[in-house]
Structures are given as C-alpha cells and as structure tokens.
C-alpha cells in the first residue's frame, strides 16, 4: 500500500474554464436554433 495516493489531489484533473465552456455551449446552441429558425422562415415564405 505504498503507492496509494490521496484522492483529494486531483492529479488527472485538467484545468478548464468552466464559465467559458458554458458560454460557448449556450452560444453554439443558440446559433444552431437560430439557423433552424431562419431556414423555417425562408421555407414558410417560399411556400406562401
């Protein structure tokens, strides 16, 4: 049991910017929904 490490050390944890990741996720999802909305509006105007 000599090589047992303290699990609180978080040796394998990579430093990340969580707020930036969440902001990019929201921005990307908003962009995807906006593209879907724009295509739907174009199709609606093309039909009518």
Automatic annotation (TrEMBL):
- List the transmembrane segments: 22-47
Superkingdom in the source lineage? Bacteria
Annotated keywords: Membrane, Transmembrane, Transmembrane helix
What is the protein name for this chain? YqzM family protein
Which species does this protein come from?
Paenibacillus lycopersici
Phylogenetic classification of the source organism: Bacteria, Bacillati, Bacillota, Bacilli, Bacillales
